[in-house]
Task: inverse folding
């Protein structure tokens, strides 16, 4: 529970933290509203809201909501051509206007160009036929939780796993080689692209070549409930939603503070030595920001772990519920049971703290 | 160096171009902040679509379609929004819980006195703040006991005893947080000093206490306080059922406060300690007159953050059966008379509004203080 929550909250938190610093006014404001709302409302209230006000009033299994599942398809020709043309015009306007002397006309042109490019991309994504809504998809939402197809592994899947392992090893080896070459000759290699190809594209190709060796068991409505398929209980969904959105609000603030803590002179100096914005962020700003971010991030992870004990309020059988509910009822040994519960949390907390301290020490500034 | 050496030399000044009319004003602002690049334009369009979709729904749910007066029947009609009538009808319960009707003025008086004292303490230019502090930290707790719990055993007297199982609602939430705040600051300072102390036993005790409490969830601390405190004391002194979670919350927040204060103590330059010692001040005077005032000022944001966390955590006392505000909302939400599709959401939105106002107010105050105190450091 806590580990899934930590991963999701980190992603969401970093995105929102960056969004708060976005130069786009509307995005920054939306992120600010999100953070202020989440941080100033008790977590318990949010959990109860998700559970009792959002997930409980969902219809029963017979009237469950069939969620549309989006699959990829071949884009249609006409919208694609239109979109490419619009994008090209937009790009032309934008580049032309950016290179000349600024005047009213060029400003209008560059703004119009950027808007045109945006509309082209969005329109193509929306109407280009790239995404297909699969009708009979088998993902259902009802008051018994989220139900989706159960993937079963068919023979031939081992090859995909092998390709994945090979890809990971290959990517690590390539990174090592690229580092060595950079240290010796100063030439850089596109590590990220190659790694993406090796880790994602290679197994995907093998997957397709082996004839998609995964079969899905679709859930079917039988009697009063669905048979087959995987089911996630609403308690779990509510807990995960609540914990992730809540912790993300705090992580976003930590990330924002971390990025702001890197002085502007660092960015300016990086630009002055000729680094482009991308490498500046990757090589100069983020490594320094991480140093500021990691210690408070650790305590947020610990908080998330401890907050997962609130599951007891919405009836999700987590550690506290099992120990102080079930075990306490069975044994009646209050002191021992509560002590064991605390001990388990203490162990989890100290382990996480230990790991993060090690990571922090690795990343910390090495001083004399 | 003659002019002939230079490859290109401008003979006359460049032609003066008119300033782009697009360079300032709302159009420039739009260009700068919303449509600067293609990526930015994309985000703007998506966000605008999202807002266009959400805002009317929200407004109609919360205001135009909401039920402002009526009964449970009106709120059950299809298509209506938030049921504010439910909130209005249950407001007394949300504030006082089951506190007896005739004695509710005591709660009102308590809240009014508390509000005045807190305002006195928080207003930086208020006269005689030290008197306010003494009143708040010494007189107010006694007053709390006398007013809320009562002193007289005879029924139908002015200050008749009201058993704590009748307490509930907003004032219990406020009581728990005030107790936590009043207790945690001094206890946290003591623990922080203990952690930096040279006496090994004091140090060991402080470290163990802080690390232990910070390593476990508040719920388990509350459980512990609820089930174990009565085991440690003779039966006739067994703490009241409201007092147990109060102790739990106070201990819990003290540990967090101790870490915040320790941060402030560590950030103090060594020269301050040495200077105080060179003046011949002993330990308690050095801490009281020199170190703590500066250290505490430095960590005001951290302290307020802990207070905000504490205020939000007061919702958890419901686990040991205390009727705080959120629990009161929870109870009334399930009232069959008002049962309806929008009741839960209405109750939660109202509760969220209450907590939001308090926490947001605290964080704004901390920002204001920070700016005010930093004025001396700015050059």
Result:
């Amino acid at each position: 529970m806590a580990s899934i929550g930590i991963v999701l909250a980190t992603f969401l938190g970093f995105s929102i933290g960056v969004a708060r610093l976005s130069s786009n006014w509307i995005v920054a404001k939306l992120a600010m509203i999100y953070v202020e709302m989440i941080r100033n409302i008790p977590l318990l209230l949010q959990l109860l809201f998700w559970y009792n006000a959002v997930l409980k009033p969902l219809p029963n299994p017979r009237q469950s909501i069939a969620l549309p599942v989006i699959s990829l398809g071949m884009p249609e020709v006409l919208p694609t051509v239109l979109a490419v043309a619009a994008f090209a015009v937009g790009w032309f306007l934008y580049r032309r206007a950016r290179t000349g002397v600024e005047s009213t006309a060029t400003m209008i042109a560059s703004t119009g160009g950027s808007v045109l490019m945006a509309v082209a991309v969005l329109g193509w994504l929306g109407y280009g036929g790239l995404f297909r809504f699969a009708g009979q998809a088998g993902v259902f939402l009802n008051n018994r939780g989220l139900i989706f197809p159960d993937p079963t592994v068919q023979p031939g899947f081992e090859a995909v796993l092998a390709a994945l392992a090979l890809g990971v090893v290959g990517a690590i080896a390539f990174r090592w080689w690229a580092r060595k070459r950079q240290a010796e000759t100063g030439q850089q290699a596109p590590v990220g692209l190659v790694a993406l190809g090796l880790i994602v594209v290679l197994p995907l190709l093998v997957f397709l070549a082996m004839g998609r060796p995964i079969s899905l068991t679709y859930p079917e409505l039988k009697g009063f409930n669905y048979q087959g398929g995987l089911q996630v209980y609403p308690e779990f969904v509510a807990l995960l939603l609540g914990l992730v959105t809540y912790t993300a609000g705090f992580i976003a603030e930590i990330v924002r503070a971390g990025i702001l803590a890197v002085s502007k002179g660092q960015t300016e100096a990086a630009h002055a030595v000729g680094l482009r914005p991308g490498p500046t962020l990757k090589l100069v700003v983020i490594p320094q920001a991480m140093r500021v971010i990691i210690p408070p991030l650790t305590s947020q992870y610990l908080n998330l772990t401890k907050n997962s004990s609130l599951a007891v309020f919405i009836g999700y059988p987590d550690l506290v519920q099992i120990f102080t509910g079930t075990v306490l009822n069975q044994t009646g040994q209050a002191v021992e049971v509560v002590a064991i519960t605390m001990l388990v949390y203490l162990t989890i907390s100290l382990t996480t703290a230990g790991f993060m301290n090690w990571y922090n020490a690795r990343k910390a500034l090495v001083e004399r | 160096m003659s002019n002939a050496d230079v490859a290109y030399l401008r003979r006359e000044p460049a032609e003066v171009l008119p300033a782009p009319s697009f360079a300032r004003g709302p159009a420039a602002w739009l260009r700068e902040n919303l449509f600067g690049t293609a990526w930015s334009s994309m985000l703007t369009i998506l966000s605008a679509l999202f807002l266009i979709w959400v805002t009317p729904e929200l407004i109609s749910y919360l205001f135009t379609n909401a039920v402002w007066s009526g009964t449970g029947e009106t709120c059950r009609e299809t298509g209506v929004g938030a049921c504010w009538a439910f909130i209005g009808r249950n407001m007394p319960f949300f504030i006082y819980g089951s506190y007896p009707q005739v004695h509710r003025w005591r709660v009102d008086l308590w809240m009014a006195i508390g509000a005045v004292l807190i305002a006195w303490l928080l207003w930086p230019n208020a006269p005689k703040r030290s008197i306010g502090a003494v009143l708040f930290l010494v007189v107010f707790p006694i007053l709390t006991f006398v007013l809320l719990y009562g002193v007289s055993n005879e029924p139908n007297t002015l200050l008749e005893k009201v058993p704590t199982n009748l307490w509930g609602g907003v004032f219990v939430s406020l009581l728990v947080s005030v107790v936590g705040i009043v207790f945690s600051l001094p206890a946290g300072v003591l623990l922080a000093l203990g952690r930096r102390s040279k006496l090994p036993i004091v140090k060991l005790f402080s470290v163990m206490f802080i690390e232990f409490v910070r390593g476990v969830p508040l719920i388990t601390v509350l459980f512990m306080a609820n089930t174990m405190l009565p085991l440690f004391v003779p039966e006739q002194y067994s703490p009241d059922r409201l007092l147990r979670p109060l102790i739990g919350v106070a201990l819990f927040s003290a540990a967090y406060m101790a870490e915040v204060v320790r941060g402030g103590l560590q950030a103090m330059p060594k020269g301050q300690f040495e200077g105080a010692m060179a003046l011949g001040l002993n330990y308690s005077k050095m801490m009281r007159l020199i170190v703590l005032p500066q250290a505490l000022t430095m960590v005001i944001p951290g302290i307020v953050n802990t207070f905000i966390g504490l205020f939000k955590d007061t919702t958890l006392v419901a686990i040991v059966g205390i009727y705080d505000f959120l629990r009161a909302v929870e109870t009334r939400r399930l009232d069959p008379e008002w049962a309806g599709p929008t009741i839960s959401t209405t109750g939660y939105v109202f509760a969220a509004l209450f907590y939001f106002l308090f926490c947001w107010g605290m964080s704004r105050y901390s920002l204001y203080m920070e700016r005010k105190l930093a004025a001396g450091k700015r050059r």
